[in-house]
Amino acid sequence: MVNIKKLESELWESADLLRAGSKLTSNQYCMPVLGLIFLRYAYSRFKMVEAEILKDRPSRGGRVMPVEASDFAAKSALYLPKEAQYDYLLNLPDDIKGADLKNKDGHVMTSLGEVVNNAMQLIEEQSEQLVGILPKSYTDFSDELLSELLRIFNNSALDEVGGDIIGRIYEYFLNKFAKNIASDDGVFFTPKSLVKMIVNIIEPTNGILLDPACGSGGMFIQSGDFVNQTGMNANSTMTFYGQEKVEYNAQLCLMNMAVHGLTGVIKSGDEANSFYHDAHNLDGCCDYIMANPPFNVDKVKAESCESAKRLPFGMPTVNKNKEIGNGNYLWISYFYSYLNERGRAGFVMASSATDSQGKDKDIRQKLVETCHVDAMISVGNNFFYTKSLPCSLWFFDKGKNEGIKDKVLFIDARNYYTVVDRTLNEWSEWQLKNLNAIVWLYRGETEKYTALLNEYRAVLGNGSFEDILHKLKDELKALQKRAKLEVDNAGRTDKKRIQAEYDKMISEKNEEITIAKEAVWLYEKFGDGVYADVLGLCKVADITEIEEKGWSLTPGAYVGVAPVEDDGVDFEERMAEIHRELLSLQAESNDLMDTISKNMKGMGL
Hints:
By secondary structure, the chain is of the alpha/beta class.
């Protein structure tokens, strides 16, 4: 797995070192640098799709037919003319003046900046929605600086990272360039695993999808992937609409969509402020709503909201200044209002909104009474990239089946995640599938659950998941033992190679163990496919129970607390062991201090 945080910091350090050595300000530098990342990522996807096209390509007279722009359009991908391909730019001669290169209008180019500007213009010709969007200020850069930036961003790790990679690196860079922009009004990048969870539960297949706080477009990217994986073409079956107040983000969203071959209508600026404008006139028209809106926004003008409508449950609390002190329930009301008679919504929201009081509680009661709240998921800390706050995922479904019409599924997933590093958690692919499986069983979609069990068996083999896990753990122990023995007995020249070979095998075995653990986690709770409430994890509650809980939508209020599992470790024995380790470390530390002291005396210090 690519260490995306390491990649980001490496890219940033190199790029910022160059900025510091130039006369450009952060604002002049930010978008052009992101434009180069766009170019590199677009090239990565271009090569991947080109390989797919060439796989089944007919040949004439022994020559394979060359790929064309139309081939890429059929695959929902962005076509790059030769002069806009990253390796072409990377391998240009140092002396651009002497190379006699002409731009798309036939004029001779005299600097690398002109060549990169030309590449951006050629790409804009391939995608109507990119016209006027891509940065074209590369003549502000010296040829040496631009050449070095192209080299820095030619990082193969960018080939391996899917989803909204541009958005993720963009936020990292923007946060470094201008922190006040990145954290303005509670705006921050939506992590991939939260986006995937929303998309997997909403299951967009055809119709209108709106994200009224679309940022860099992650919801669109993931939805497009979901549709394309079902064998349909996202651009043919879906219509994407977005609103984004920050122009920078809207620009990035269009770039991001273009790289993934998606077309959409994105509005930005003041007219796209979703608090006051339904910019696409989509109230009551949407099949799907997905969003990660800014949380806890204050000082929202109440009269402007009222005249903008989309408030089926009434206004939240208005203060004496005729302002709404917290915009969370404006968003929640808008998302519901945008849906058509069978629409689904999934969005991220501040945890506090699930049981906030006052007018919020009245709105929440009316919302629950519609019977359109489908599922609520609590998410733990450290899922967000630049914030550590917990959140909830809310799901509405106006087309719920009769069996669950007056019910809501509550999932408390705060203790279910994979640690990426000290400050970041996520759901792995298998954890996403497991959480999704709970929703399938609640909806009565047992065939999807069965398909997931078969997927586990295809990876792990047949038999009891518990037995497979024990077997894999035994294999890992044997592998580690063998590795130690062989490395210890190897000659000095072979040690590194043998260690690397075993490290790879041990890593692969650990990956299998992780998958087996997830299979056991799922199967011990739901067996061959029967939904059951699980203490501390999930519960289906009806409207009566929700009313008894004061109309709270906090999963923890319903699922209870799971019993603490006995890990089989003898507490006293473990404490004695830790004490022995501590004494041993203290002795080592004292020996080391004595040695340092003697050495310093020997040096006359």
